C-alpha cells in the first residue's frame, strides 16, 4: 500500500515537442494512489506521449514527472522500480516463448523465487499457457498485449501504466484482464491507462482526464466529468463531433 498522501504519479508542466508538433503542452496531473485512473482523448491528443514520459521512455522537452514521490530525472532508478509498463512498440526478445521471456525478465530484475508462481498464474489467466511452444515472433497483436501485461505485473509494481490495454483484445480475454486489474487495485495498486473504450473507463476508473491537443480539457471523478450523460456522450460533446455528411458514392 502506498502512502495515501503521496501521488502515485505527479506530472508538472510536461511539454513534449517533436520537430513538427507540440504533442504535450505544459500539462499537469496528480494521480492519487490506489485507484484506476483513465486518460482519454481523440486520436493524436497526446495520450501515448504523456504515458511514455511518465514511464521514462522519452525525456520530455520540459517539465517534471514524479513516481511515488521519486523524480524521474534525479531519482530515475527509484522511480522506475515502482512502475510496470505496457506500451506498444516496447521491444521483446522475439525468439523466446512466454514462459522464457518471463524467466528472462525475472532474472534481469533479480526477483526472488515467488515470480515462478506469479508467472504461472499470469500465463493461465491470460490464456498464454495454451500455446507454450509459440515464440513471441509468432504472436498476434492481442497475444503481444497479453505478454506485455504479464511482464508489467511480474515484479508486483506499485503503479501500472497501460497504453490502450484493450486494443485488439477479444471480449473473453478483456474480461480476464479487467479482473486481474481490479484485484491489483483492490490490493492497493494504481492503474493509469489510456483508452478509447469509454464504457470500461466509466465502469472502472475513479478519475479521468480528457486530453485534447496535449492539454487537459477537464479532469476529475468520472461521474463529475460525465455529468448527466454517459462518459461517451460527454466525450463527444467535449471533443466536438465531426459533422457526418452522406457519401453519395456509397448509396
Ligand atoms: N515520434 C514522433 N515524432 C513526431 N511526432 C510525433 C511522434 N510521436 C507522436 N507524435 C505526434 O504527437 C501527437 C500526439 O501523439 P500521441 O501518439 O501521443 O497521441 P495519442 O493521443 O496517443 O493518439 P492515439 O489515440 O491515436 O493513439 C500527434 O500529433 C503525433 O503525430
UniProtKB/TrEMBL annotation:
UniProt keyword terms in alphabetical order: ATP-binding, Nucleotide-binding, Transport
Top-level taxon of the source organism: Bacteria
Record's keyword annotation contains ATP-binding: yes
UniProt entry tagged with the keyword Transport: yes
Pfam families: ABC_tran (PF00005)
Stretches assigned to the ABC transporter domain: 9-238
InterPro entries in UniProt: AAA+_ATPase, ABC_transporter-like_ATP-bd, P-loop_NTPase
Molecular function via GO: ATP binding
Similarity remark: Belongs to the ABC transporter superfamily.
Protein name: ABC transporter ATP-binding protein
Source species of the chain: Streptomonospora nanhaiensis
Lineage: Bacteria, Bacillati, Actinomycetota, Actinomycetes, Streptosporangiales
Amino acid at each position: 500500500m502506498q502512502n495515501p498522501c503521496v501521488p502515485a504519479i505527479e506530472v508538472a508542466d510536461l511539454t513534449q515537442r517533436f520537430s513538427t508538433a507540440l504533442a504535450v503542452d505544459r500539462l499537469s496531473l496528480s494521480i492519487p494512489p490506489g485507484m484506476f485512473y483513465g486518460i482519454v482523448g481523440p486520436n493524436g491528443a497526446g495520450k501515448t506521449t504523456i504515458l511514455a514520459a511518465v514511464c521514462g521512455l522519452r525525456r520530455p522537452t520540459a517539465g517534471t514527472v514524479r513516481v511515488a514521490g521519486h523524480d524521474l530525472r534525479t531519482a530515475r532508478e527509484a522511480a522506475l522500480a515502482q512502475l510496470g509498463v505496457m506500451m506498444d512498440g516496447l521491444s521483446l526478445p522475439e525468439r523466446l516463448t512466454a514462459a522464457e521471456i518471463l524467466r528472462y525478465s525475472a532474472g534481469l530484475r533479480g526477483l526472488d523465487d515467488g515470480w515462478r508462481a506469479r508467472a504461472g498464474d499470469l500465463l493461465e489467466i491470460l490464456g498464454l499457457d495454451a500455446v507454450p511452444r509459440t515464440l513471441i515472433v509468432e504472436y498476434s497483436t492481442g497475444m503481444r498485449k497479453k505478454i506485455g501485461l504479464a511482464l508489467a505485473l511480474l515484479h508486483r509494481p506499485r503503479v501500472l501504466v497501460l497504453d490502450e490495454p484493450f486494443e485488439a483484445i477479444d471480449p473473453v480475454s478483456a474480461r480476464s484482464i479487467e479482473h486481474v486489474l481490479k484485484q491489483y487495485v483492490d490490493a492497493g495498486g494504481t492503474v493509469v491507462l489510456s483508452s478509447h473504450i469509454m464504457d470500461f473507463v466509466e465502469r472502472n476508473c475513479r478519475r479521468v482526464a480528457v486530453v485534447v491537443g496535449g492539454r487537459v480539457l477537464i479532469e476529475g471523478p468520472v461521474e463529475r466529468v460525465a455529468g448527466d450523460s454517459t462518459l461517451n456522450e460527454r466525450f463527444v460533446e467535449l471533443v466536438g463531433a465531426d459533422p457526418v455528411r452522406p457519401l453519395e458514392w456509397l448509396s
